[in-house]
Write a structure and sequence with these properties.
Elements: H1 3-26, H2 32-48, E1 54-55, H3 59-66, E2 74-79, H4 82-119, E3 121-124, E4 129-132, E5 140-142, E6 145-148, H5 157-171, H6 174-187, H7 192-211, H8 219-230, E7 241-242, H9 248-255, H10 264-269, H11 271-283, E8 284-285, E9 303-306, E10 312-316, H12 326-337, H13 342-346, E11 351-359, E12 365-371, H14 379-388, E13 396-398, E14 401-416
Parallel strand pairs: 1-8, 2-14, 4-6, 10-14
Antiparallel strand pairs: 3-4, 5-6, 5-7, 9-10, 11-12, 11-14, 13-14
Helix pairs in contact: 1-2, 1-7, 1-11, 2-7, 4-6, 5-7, 6-7, 8-9
């Protein structure tokens, strides 16, 4: 499976589980700052957690033992069957085209707002700029700009409520959240939960901004003004916060809701073990099942085995053997000689092959054999074929003498989608 597809599926899983918890425990609670932070962290965590890998206890010891005299894994890339490869390519092209269209729509919306700023009449204030333009049907804000219809009197009771509401959007930096979510939903448009998060975050922004003009006993008057404005509300534009942003019913209900609810702290704290559990369940890694079983090797003493011919074969020496020219030369040799077996390509077979061999005192290689899980389909045979044609290695040394040393070479076969 394509790594990008795996990433998108994991991101959808994380965002779905975390958003489900929000709907069950946090939604419609009068803790708007917390809910806003949770939705933003939910989105960022869903993008980052698929990249996290947590090694399970015990992996480090096994890995250090097996890699003591093991070359770095060499990866052989092959191409999958033509029809499958072509299908995946077209799917990714279609995905990229949709993402590009959404980003273009995003850019067009910003251009529209900039045109509105250039064409409007400005009234500067210490914390914002009021843009007066006749095409503005309902007040809205974007960063430090408040867009206003010239026929609406800012000093009237309704005008003060609307102006305070838009000023709250500016002070709290809601436009940054909106830009972030628009970018995420454009690039990860296939994830439905990101779109739900964006919609919910926009409503939470309204809840936060409503608290300012509704304070000091103005709740009833503000709710009446909000309902009156909603009857003439335009459709919500991209990127901006309309004063009459729907759903009005939820906003009015939130104004009359008690600020403190039972178990509010527990509702917040339960999100932490949920995120930790999701991370642990989906990000833990284990040792490659194709790797041969490893045993602890005492160091720094030399460890040796008795071969059938009576020669000593060491598994730990003062100076390990190496390919002539070092790792770069080994990688170049394998790149020029290893071929992906056609049978494995046809069967879509991938995996890591471990070849164990002995580097003799004179640098020649012998006793080559696969260890660990056998994958088949010609992968092991191809690796051994290439190794038999290798030049002599630099032999390992112990007590200033060349000795026989056992070595492992991992070769990872992967198919490109």
């Amino acid at each position: 499976m394509s790594p990008i597809l795996v990433y998108l599926l994991k991101a959808a899983l994380y965002s779905g589980l975390l958003f489900a918890y929000y709907c069950l425990a946090l939604r419609n609670q009068r803790q708007h700052r917390w809910n806003r932070a949770y939705l933003l962290v939910l989105t960022a965590a869903s993008l980052l957690l698929p990249l996290v890998r947590i090694p399970l206890p015990g992996d480090a010891a096994a890995s250090s033992a097996i890699l003591r005299y093991t070359a770095a894994a060499f990866e052989v890339n092959g191409s999958a069957a033509g029809s499958v490869n072509s299908s995946w390519q077209w799917l990714w092209i279609a995905y990229a085209l949709v993402a590009a269209a959404l980003l273009a729509r995003f850019g067009y919306a910003i251009w529209q707002l900039s045109s509105l700023i250039r064409g409007g009449r400005r009234q500067a204030s210490s914390h914002y700029q009021l843009i007066l333009h006749p095409s503005v049907s309902s007040p809205f804000s974007f960063f430090r700009y408040i867009f206003w219809n010239p026929s609406t009197e800012p000093l009237s009771a309704e005008g003060r409520h609307m102006l305070q509401h838009e000023q709250a959007h500016i002070r709290k930096g809601h436009s940054w959240d909106t830009l972030f979510m628009e970018t995420v939903t454009a690039l990860c448009w296939i994830n439905p939960f990101f779109h739900l998060v964006k919609k919910e975050l926009s409503i939470v922004h309204e809840f936060e901004a409503d608290e300012v003009p509704a304070g000091n006993g103005q709740t009833a008057a503000y709710a009446e003004n909000l309902l009156r404005q909603a009857l003439h509300a335009p459709s919500a534009r991209l990127l901006i916060h309309h004063f009459s942003q729907p759903p009005v019913k939820r906003r009015i209900m939130m104004l009359t809701r008690h600020s403190q609810t039972r178990y509010a702290a527990i509702r917040k704290l339960m999100a932490l073990p949920l995120a930790a559990g999701i991370l642990f369940a989906t990000s833990c890694t284990q040792q490659d099942p194709a790797a041969p079983a490893a045993t602890e090797t005492p160091a720094p003493q030399a460890v040796q085995l008795k071969a059938a011919a009576g020669d000593e074969v060491f598994t730990f020496v003062e100076l390990p053997p190496s390919f002539p020219g070092g790792d770069e030369a080994l990688i170049k040799y394998l790149s020029n000689n290893l071929k992906y077996p056609q049978e494995a390509v046809d069967k879509n077979v991938t995996g890591t092959v471990f070849i164990q061999f002995v580097v003799d005192k004179d640098g020649s290689l012998r006793d080559m054999k696969p260890v660990g899980k056998v994958i088949g389909y010609g992968l092991e045979e191809e690796a051994i074929r290439v190794m038999k044609g290798m030049p002599k290695w630099r032999p390992g040394r112990q007590n200033d003498k060349n000795v026989n040393v056992m070595f492992n070479l991992p070769i990872r076969y992967t198919l490109q989608d």
